[in-house]
Write a structure and sequence with these properties.
This protein has 925 residues and is an alpha+beta fold. The chain has 28 helices and 37 strands. Strands 10, 11, 12, 13, 14, 15 and 18 form a 7-stranded mixed β-sheet that branches. Strands 26, 27, 28, 31, 32 and 33 form a 6-stranded mixed β-sheet that branches. A hairpin with a 4-residue loop joins strand 26 (625-635) and strand 27 (640-642). 39% of the residues are buried.
Length: 925
């Protein structure tokens, strides 16, 4: 009987579970290593073969580090709140907790099948009250904190009050919604509501009017990445931009620290660059343009040197000043445009660079340096999220301003001449000149200066006039933290006489109440408004819930001390585990989860709740395993299908079909006809008696019928085979197509590996005699390569190395314990079940999980001999292995005394003896 993967894998999975093999405890005698997967949202579809790619890679690293003597923390849990479960609840009436529990059970079963070495004793679920208690607690800490730029950290909000009492509000160097200036007497006279409003302006978790993506059909606010082309990703419903009172987190206060921290973590440069661009640091100037009605319009520019080239102003459609400055004759057109533009997503507005739209307000601004009147327009190419939502348009030197000016016949004045060019007639230009280097022209006192010098001089000038100042701007916007959903963490907030107050810590968690239906109320309030008798001493609770990312911001800390009911994580646990040494997950989280998690970690660091201000020391984005879709070709207007290589003779539609109906691109016609009723009476035009399907590599998706279920593969080939094959497909960080045909080869390799330890009758046979030098060379060559590969996360080349090793040892008929015992340990991180079984057969009672990783001995790879080809008059006649350290005289003696050489020389006289070390010996006769 050959290797029985079903029996062996079930045996060891049960033993690991019963023995709690992978439970991690603080052990100050060992170095720690914390490995974490981005925890999954448990969907009803379960896992397909693409999902485990990162999990297998992190498990290989975890098992390897244990073998290297590290105390490894490798936990798993579930990001259990989310819109899909809520939508299912709306459709069926089933409580989201029920479907979430069912989905988690399915995920857990599938993950266990793969032999992943998780510490399940630390499992967390974001929807469990003992967990979301700490999400609510973190929100309260932010509500009670502000950010001080002088201290460069978060401080208690109460520390602002003495400054207010002293009349120093205007002198505060702190993060806030707007700069405030009030006297000590004003503060003393403020009502409780007015004081609360002032403090809200500084809180890190604050309530304010915000422009949001509102989806009426879903009845909730959506994040930017939940909206594509103006519709919701979930359901494809129309989304509109709307101003609503929302909770937000003041992540912008940490913008500079978020940038600086990128220099201290081991992430890919591309991922760091995505975050740098999202944060969007710009050095420039704030300039004030006075409007005809006396109001001032604030703009931010990175090119103060082009101030004299500003020929019009542009406001974003959301700008609050539009209503007050629009003239009566322009009112109808402006209102219509604003309504249309506000409902377009930022993504649409940023990507549609070739088409510009806009409308004139009828008002003018006064240029602060020339005194000229310049028109004020509204256009959706200006975003509310950048600067003040208003720009000075310099069409000669900005491509979108240029397009706008051309479309609406606005002036274009050149003020920068790029190096090597001369001033030109702008009416002849086909595009703007966006050069960041050159000489200034048509700009009064800065004409003739280089760009950099001109920027500095202009900023000094506007500061002296009091019409602006040099500043730094960030593209990063505060994170909107409210959702009008049911299935999420309730805010620990109630309203007393209109003032938002948080619960005391000993009142947490605030439980999610039961409600009868999960839709918004008839008056448009969030679903939680349906809860009965849900209040704090008669004061209504906030009826919003936190967004999906709320529970994932600090979950890595909770894993360190998952059952602590007193604090998020004890100082002892955090001091030991510190932060995540290796984090593996998808690159799609670059600007969402990863940015927010870094922000929350820095806040918790500020208040003394964690010892590191970066959560993830090293991060790897695993690539995607793509599906191999199969197609059939239906002749248009018929129910007849034509084989792939015959389709060009017809007009056909290519239709996706279930890949399980196809074997080696050949369709099982009878199963296909039974697959869907509409194909019951289908007819087929075959080639060579077969229906050949087309194929294409695409994203693995249920809708494309190309999803491969890992359970079926584990049942057929075993988890160890699946683990090795997923790693063998290619480099971890690259996307690669799935092809089930390739798994057969890996399965054969594992059986061949098993046979090294067994005879032809499948009896375990190991020899205790000493290994040969050749066998030891193979072993140590493998140890060296595999260790290097794991350290470099090059798991695909490790699998290749194992295959070469097993082939070479099989050729030598090696069954020596001296070789095969360390080999079992070496492959254990990749194929843990088969290695555990072999380890047990080798006589060990303890798990292989904590054996010692084989030590590489370079002596076996150092070349001490060389097999020299010996040529006589240019023809190779013999091969002689000689010590490479022999002198030429000793080499000559050894060769001339060799029987084969003597035979070919006969009585011939030797004219020359040529010796080239480590290459060749040539005898000339």
């Amino acid at each position: 009987m050959d290797y029985n993967h079903r029996e062996i894998e079930q045996k060891w999975q049960s033993k690991w579970q019963n023995d709690k093999t992978f439970e991690a405890k603080i052990d100050n005698k060992k170095p720690k290593y914390y490995v974490l997967d981005m925890f999954p949202y448990p969907s009803g579809a379960g896992l397909h073969v693409g999902h485990p790619l990162g999990y297998i890679a992190s498990d290989i690293t975890s098992r390897y580090k244990r073998l290297k003597g590290f105390n490894v923390l490798h936990p798993m849990g579930y990001d259990a709140y989310g819109l899909p479960a809520e939508q299912y609840a709306i459709q069926t009436g089933t409580h989201p907790a029920i479907t979430t529990e069912q989905n988690i059970s399915r995920y857990r079963q599938q993950l266990n099948l793969l032999g992943l070495s998780y510490d399940w004793s630390r499992e967390i679920r974001t929807c469990d009250p003992p967990y979301y208690k700490w999400t609510q607690w973190t929100f309260i800490q932010m509500f009670n904190s502000f950010y001080c730029y002088d201290a460069n950290k978060a401080l208690p909000i109460s520390e602002l009050i003495p400054a207010f009492e002293a009349g120093a509000a205007k002198d505060l160097n702190v993060a806030c919604g707007k700069r405030m200036d009030f006297s000590a007497e004003d503060w003393a006279a403020f009502s409780e509501q007015e004081k609360a409003d002032v403090l809200m302006n500084y809180r890190l978790a604050y309530l304010s009017e915000a422009l949001v993506n509102w989806c009426p059909q879903l009845g909730t606010v959506l994040a930017n990445d939940e909206v594509v082309n103006g519709v919701s990703v979930r359901g494809g419903y129309a989304v509109e931009r709307k101003s609503m009172k929302q909770w937000s987190l003041r992540i912008t206060a940490y913008a500079e620290r978020l940038l600086e921290g990128l220099e201290r973590i081991d992430w890919s440069e591309s991922l760091k660059e995505i975050q740098r661009n999202w944060i969007g640091k710009s050095k420039g100037a704030t300039v004030f343009f006075e409007l005809e009605n006396g109001e001032k319009l604030e703009i931010f520019t990175t090119r103060a040197d082009t101030l004299f080239g500003a020929t019009f102003m542009v406001l974003c459609p959301e700008h609050k000043i539009i209503e007050s400055i629009t003239t009566s004759e322009r009112k109808v057109e402006v209102e219509a445009y604003v309504k249309w533009a506000k409902n377009r997503s930022e993504r649409e507005r940023l990507t549609e660079v070739k088409s510009v739209t806009g409308v004139a307000t009828g008002s003018f601004a006064i240029h602060p340096l020339t005194g000229k009147k310049i028109p004020v327009w509204v256009s959706d190419y200006v975003l509310a999220g950048y600067g003040s939502g208003a720009i000075m348009a310099v069409p000669a030197h900005d491509s979108r301003d240029f397009s706008f000016a051309r479309k609406f016949d606005l002036p274009i004045v050149q003020v920068v001449v790029p190096n090597g060019e001369s001033e030109e007639d702008t009416s002849l230009w086909q595009e703007s000149k966006d050069s960041k280097e050159g000489t200034i022209i048509n700009s009064d006192f800065i004409s003739g200066l280089k760009v950099k010098d001109a920027i500095n001089k202009i900023i000094n000038h506007i500061e002296s006039l009091g019409i602006g100042y040099g500043t730094i701007n960030y593209r990063l916007r505060d994170a909107i933290f409210s959702r009008q959903r049911y299935w999420g963490e309730p805010f620990p907030v109630y309203y007393e006489n209109g003032v938002a107050k948080t619960l005391n810590e000993d009142e947490l968690p605030l439980l999610l109440p039961d409600i009868e239906t999960y839709l918004p109320t008839e008056s448009g309030e969030p679903p939680l408004a349906r809860a009965k008798d849900w209040s704090h001493n008669g004061n209504a609770y906030d009826t919003n819930t936190m967004p999906g990312f709320a529970g994932s911001n600090a979950y890595y800390l909770r894993y360190m001390d998952a059952h602590n009911g007193i604090e998020l994580c004890s100082k002892e646990a955090n001091a030991y585990w510190q932060n995540v040494d290796l984090y593996i997950g998808g690159s799609e989280h670059a600007t969402g989860h990863l940015l927010y998690s870094r922000f929350v970690t820095k806040f918790l660091f500020d208040i003394g709740k964690c010892c590191k201000d970066e959560p993830f020391a090293k991060l790897i984005n695993q690539g995607m395993i793509q599906g191999r879709s199969s197609f059939v070709y239906r002749i248009k207007g018929t129910n007849k299908f034509v084989s792939h290589n015959l389709k060009d003779g017809y007009q056909t539609d290519a239709l996706h079909i279930d890949i399980n109906l196809v074997d080696n691109d050949v369709l099982d016609i009878e199963r296909f006809k039974q697959w869907r009723e509409e194909y019951n009476n289908a007819t087929f035009e075959l080639e060579d008696g077969k229906y050949v399907c087309g194929w294409e590599v695409e994203k693995m998706s249920k809708s494309l019928y190309n999803v491969q279920n890992p359970d079926m593969l584990v049942e057929r080939y075993g988890a160890d085979t699946l683990r090795l094959y997923e790693m063998f497909l290619g480099p971890l960080e690259q996307s690669k197509p799935w092809d089930t045909k390739g798994i057969e080869g890996v399965s054969r390799f594992l059986r061949k590996f098993w046979r090294l330890y067994h005879d032809k009758d499948n009896h375990f046979v190991i020899s205790n005699e000493s290994a040969s030098k050749e066998e030891l060379i193979i072993l140590h060559k493998t140890i060296k390569k595999v260790e290097q590969d794991i350290e470099n996360f090059s798991f695909n080349t490790s699998v290749s190395t194992f295959m070469i090793c097993v082939n070479e040892l099989t050729d030598l008929k090696c069954n020596k314990r001296e070789v095969l015992e360390p080999l079992a340990v070496l492959i254990a991180p990749f194929a843990p079940h088969i290695s555990e079984e072999l380890w047990s057969l080798l006589g060990h009672s303890e798990t292989i999980s904590f054996a010692e990783f084989p030590k590489f001995d370079n002596a076996y790879l150092e070349q001490t001999t060389f097999n020299f080809p010996v040529s006589i008059n240019g023809k190779t006649r013999a091969f002689i292995e000689l010590d490479i350290n022999l002198s030429q005289n000793d080499v000559e003696k050894a060769v001339m005394n060799d029987e084969t050489v003597k035979k070919f020389l006969g009585d011939s006289a030797v004219k020359r003896f040529i010796y080239v070390p480590k290459r060749i010996i040539n005898i000339v006769v």
